Each structure stands twice: as structure tokens, then as C-alpha cells.
């Protein structure tokens, strides 16, 4: 099938590459000329396991192309995916300017029938606004062109995006219950048929329910995280181990083990903005989503917990003190620094006068870019970007772990102890066992694990 993907970011590039991998003829459009040039020169703008290989293979086979040519992109695809960003507006609602600009561009150039797919995460009712924008542009040209707008939210996880896209646990498709809507559904069914060979994974529904499903999923996941973080802080107070509690509750099939980890708070481009956007939608209907308000507030507080533990241990004035930080990306296997808890930790340590040496397996370049925006030149001068995890440790009072990269899970503790000034670890992701750390003579501060260390 001929497919156009509008927006070549995390979602758009993965969607385009994976659909090309299945034999479709894919045209990826972006407004960012640098990104398109990089892709056309064989580069990849993001770190995502397996993506580079898929893109290279399909480029070589002539099944995927990258361009900024809007007219050509509209002419290309019988199905046009909108996968542009929907960042938070000042009031927390989703900013739809990029989605609507993409829709208008389609309306300006389209002839004949097109299926427009909202793949971006968009508030309930957005498909109606996309339809209106398309119709506006078509009418302004005085031509007749028909279209259907379908909602097909994306559930991939950064860090496992290619795998998630190729083996989705569900495909949600919302379409209108009209002849045009059924025609669009038939095309979507054909496009997604390869994913449904083993068993049917598609949930067909109306457009508004599909739009809502994406927000409900992210809100539920964020709720689980904030719930566990709040209980972890209480566990620290009462001398319980949140990891033992996690196992104890996760074995109940009604609860399950997934997504129950206490840590340094959630970040990334999705949970923070989607929780806010759902709250904002509710407020438009005079409803206050009390749970989600609390989820957000707990998360904002949780991002401070690691830094507060450091300050409690080493004092409010950290000038003259140096710390090692492992992990900068908001989660492992990505270089995404959006809303990353590491940014809050660095702000706290630098505000208290410390110097830091930081390391992340893939996010160093992105961290340099983002921290140059977050920090003043004087603050930035107090950050050293280290060449390896061990390279961060020299002269550090303590090691602070913010992201749970696999490479950090079994380090050489003897080397760490020798390199650090004091054998102190603040583990924002509960990578290690307090008992093991005690045996190795480390002072260990986890999240909700004060049973042994009484921190
Ligand atoms: N990142 C994720 O893990 C994830 C997962 C599921 C859903 N989503 C949702 O998918 C959407 C895209 O997210 P992302 O992380 O891929 O964003 P991104 O910022 O990585 O990419 C968006 C791209 O769209 C381009 N763009 C903007 N306006 C354009 C236009 N008019 N025409 C062509 N290109 C345009 C930008 O230049 C950018 O390259 C968002 O709504 C997000 O909430 C993201």
C-alpha cells in the first residue's frame, strides 16, 4: 500500500520503517530539513534499538523515502498518517497546531479519496477538528475530494519501539459508522492484516473512544508509578522494603507485577503531558480528575526525592563536594531527555553548590544539548561529561543512579569503592539489594528500602 507519514519523529519514523518492512511503499515527510538530510544521508536522528537496520534495509530496497516536499507527500499516500508532536500548551492542554497544520497541508493538495489517520496522541474530539481543517482547505480550492479521518493511537514504548510496533499487544482503530468510515476501516484492516495473523489484535471502536483509550492507558500507567512512589516514601519512614511489598502485591493477578517500580519519578514526552492534557479536557467539562491531579503532584515531588536524600546526607551546602551521576535519559534504551528526572537532580545538586560528573550510555549528546538550555554557563562548567561510568567516580563523595540502564546493574563494586571518596550509593531505581550492599560495606540509599539502612 502507498503510505505517507507526516512527522518523522519517534513515532513517525518507527511507524514508517516498520510499515515499509512489511512491504508498503512509505513516504516520510518532515518540516525539519536537517532531520530529512540526516536520514537521506543514512543517519538516524534518534536512538532506538533495531531502528537503524530496519531503515537502512528498506531504504536500500526503495520502500522508504524521506522528504520535506508536502505536495509530493500528499500525492503519494492513499493513507496519510499524522504523527507530529502534541506538546503541552501553556495551560496543560495538548497543543494541536502541528496536527492541524498537517491536516491543512493535506487539504491544500489532495485530489481523490484519502484516509487520514490520527496517530499522534490527541484529545477527544480532535478528529472533528482535523475533518473541519481538511474540509476548509478543500472548499477554499473549490474542488471535490473525499476523505475519512480515523483514530489509530500509538502504544509503542521508547527504547523498545520497533519491537512494540512489530508485535503490538493491541491495535486500536476508531472510525465513523458511515459508508466513508467503513471504507477507511477496510483499508486499515488490510494495512494491519500482517499484525493479526497469529490472532486478532485490533479493537474496532468509534473515533472518540479510540482517542480516549490512549489517554486512559497512559494515565493508568502513570497512576501505578505515582502510587508506588508514594508508598515507597512511606516505606522509608516506617522501615519497610517497597521491593518486598511490590512482590507481595504483584502476585495478585488483579494487580500484576508490571509497572509497580518505585523510583525517581516518571519523565519522557508522554506521561507528563498526557496526564496534564486529560486533566485539562476534564476541566473543559467542569470535571476535576482528582486522582490524576494527585498523580502529577506526587510525580513532581518524587523527582526531588533523590536530591533530597543527597542533601540530607551531605548537607544543604554542597560547595566543594563532587558527585557521580549514572544515567541521564528519562529511561533506558533511549536518548530522550524530555522531562527526565536527571534534569531535576542536576538542578538540585548544582543549586546546592556541588560539581558533578555525569555519564549515560547513549544520551550524552542529547544531554549536552538540553543541559546547555537548562543551565547557566557557570552551572554548566560544574558538569563534567565523563567517558564511562567508572570515569565519573574519581573524587566523588557518592554515586547517584538515576536511570536503570542494564550496563549499571552488575558493576565492579570493588572498583567503585576504591574510586569514590566515600562508599555511598544513592540508587534512584532500586537496582541493587540493600543486604548485598551492606555486606559490601556500602552505605546504600534506595527508594523505599530503608529496612536495613534506616535512611
Ligand atoms: N514518543 C513516544 O514514545 C510516543 C508513543 C506513543 C505516542 N506518541 C505520540 O505521538 C506523537 C508524536 O510524538 P513523537 O515523540 O514522535 O514526537 P517527535 O517530536 O519526536 O516528532 C514529531 C515530528 O513531527 C515533525 N513535524 C511537526 N509539524 C510537522 C508538519 N506540519 N509536517 C511534517 N512534520 C512535522 C517535527 O519536525 C518532528 O520531527 C505525539 O502526539 C506523542 O504524544 C509518542
From TrEMBL:
Any one GO molecular-function label of the UniProt entry: UDP-glucose 6-dehydrogenase activity
Alphabetized InterPro entries for the sequence: 6-PGluconate_DH-like_C_sf (IPR008927), NAD(P)-bd_dom_sf (IPR036291), UDP-Glc/GDP-Man (IPR017476), UDP-Glc/GDP-Man_DH_C (IPR014027), UDP-Glc/GDP-Man_DH_C_sf (IPR036220), UDP-Glc/GDP-Man_DH_dimer (IPR014026), UDP-Glc/GDP-Man_DH_N (IPR001732), UDPglc_DH_bac (IPR028357)
Catalytic center residues: 270
Keyword vocabulary terms for this entry: NAD, Oxidoreductase
The reaction(s) this protein catalyses: UDP-alpha-D-glucose + 2 NAD(+) + H2O = UDP-alpha-D-glucuronate + 2 NADH + 3 H(+)
Transmembrane segments: none
Positions contributing to NAD(+) binding: 30, 35, 86, 121, 158, 273, 338
EC number(s) per entry: 1.1.1.22
One GO term of the biological process aspect: UDP-glucuronate biosynthetic process
Keyword tRNA-binding in record: no
Protein name: UDP-glucose 6-dehydrogenase
The organism of origin for this protein: Duganella sacchari
Lineage: Bacteria, Pseudomonadati, Pseudomonadota, Betaproteobacteria, Burkholderiales
Amino acid at each position: 500500500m502507498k503510505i505517507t507519514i507526516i512527522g518523522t519523529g519517534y513515532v513517525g519514523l518507527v511507524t514508517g520503517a516498520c510499515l515499509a518492512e512489511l512491504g508498503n511503499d512509505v513516504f516520510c515527510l518532515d518540516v525539519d530539513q536537517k532531520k530529512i538530510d540526516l536520514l537521506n544521508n543514512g543517519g538516524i536522528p534518534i536512538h532506538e534499538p533495531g531502528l537503524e537496520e530496519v531503515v537502512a534495509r528498506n531504504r536500500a530496497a526503495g520502500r522508504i523515502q524521506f522528504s520535506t516536499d508536502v505536495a509530493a507527500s500528499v500525492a503519494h499516500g492513499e493513507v496519510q498518517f499524522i504523527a507530529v508532536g502534541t506538546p503541552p500548551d501553556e495551560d496543560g492542554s495538548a497543543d494541536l497546531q502541528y496536527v492541524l497544520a498537517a491536516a491543512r497541508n493535506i487539504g491544500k493538495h489532495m485530489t481523490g479519496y484519502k484516509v487520514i489517520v490520527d496517530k499522534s496522541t490527541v484529545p477527544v474530539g480532535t478528529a472533528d477538528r482535523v475533518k473541519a481543517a481538511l474540509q476548509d482547505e478543500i472548499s477554499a480550492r473549490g474542488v471535490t475530494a473525499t476523505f475519512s479521518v480515523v483514530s489509530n493511537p500509538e502504544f509503542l514504548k521508547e527504547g523498545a519501539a520497533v519491537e512494540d510496533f512489530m508485535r503490538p499487544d493491541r491495535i486500536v482503530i476508531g472510525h465513523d459508522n458511515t459508508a466513508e468510515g467503513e471504507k477507511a476501516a477496510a483499508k486499515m484492516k488490510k494495512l494491519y492484516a500482517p499484525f493479526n495473523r497469529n490472532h486478532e489484535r485490533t479493537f474496532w471502536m468509534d473515533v472518540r473512544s479510540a482517542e480516549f483509550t490512549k489517554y486512559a492507558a497512559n494515565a493508568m500507567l502513570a497512576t501505578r508509578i505515582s502510587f508506588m512512589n508514594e508508598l515507597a516514601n512511606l516505606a522509608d519512614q516506617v522501615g519497610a522494603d517497597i521491593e518486598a511489598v511490590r512482590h507481595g502485591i504483584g502476585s495478585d493477578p488483579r494487580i500484576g507485577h508490571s509497572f509497580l517500580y518505585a523510583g525517581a519519578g516518571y519523565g519522557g514526552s508522554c506521561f507528563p503531558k498526557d496526564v496534564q492534557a486529560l486533566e485539562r479536557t476534564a476541566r473543559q467539562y467542569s470535571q476535576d480528575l482528582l486522582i490524576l491531579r494527585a498523580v502529577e503532584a506526587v510525580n513532581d515531588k518524587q523527582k526531588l526525592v533523590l536530591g533530597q536524600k543527597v542533601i540530607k546526607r551531605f548537607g544543604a551546602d554542597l560547595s566543594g563536594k563532587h558527585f557521580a551521576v549514572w544515567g541521564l535519559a528519562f529511561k533506558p534504551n533511549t536518548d530522550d531527555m524530555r522531562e527526565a528526572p536527571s534534569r531535576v537532580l542536576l538542578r538540585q545538586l548544582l543549586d546546592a553548590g556541588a560539581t558533578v560528573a555525569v555519564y549515560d550510555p547513549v544520551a550524552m549528546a542529547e544531554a549536552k544539548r538540553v543541559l546547555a538550555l537548562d543551565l547557566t554557563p557557570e552551572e554548566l562548567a560544574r558538569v563534567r561529561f565523563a567517558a564511562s561510568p567508572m570515569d565519573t567516580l574519581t573524587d566523588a563523595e557518592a554515586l547517584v543512579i538515576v536511570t536503570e540502564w542494564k550496563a549499571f546493574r552488575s558493576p565492579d563494586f570493588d572498583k567503585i569503592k576504591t574510586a569514590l571518596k566515600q562508599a555511598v550509593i544513592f540508587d534512584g531505581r532500586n537496582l541493587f539489594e540493600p543486604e548485598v550492599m551492606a555486606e559490601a560495606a556500602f552505605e546504600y540509599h534506595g527508594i523505599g528500602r530503608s529496612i536495613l539502612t534506616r535512611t
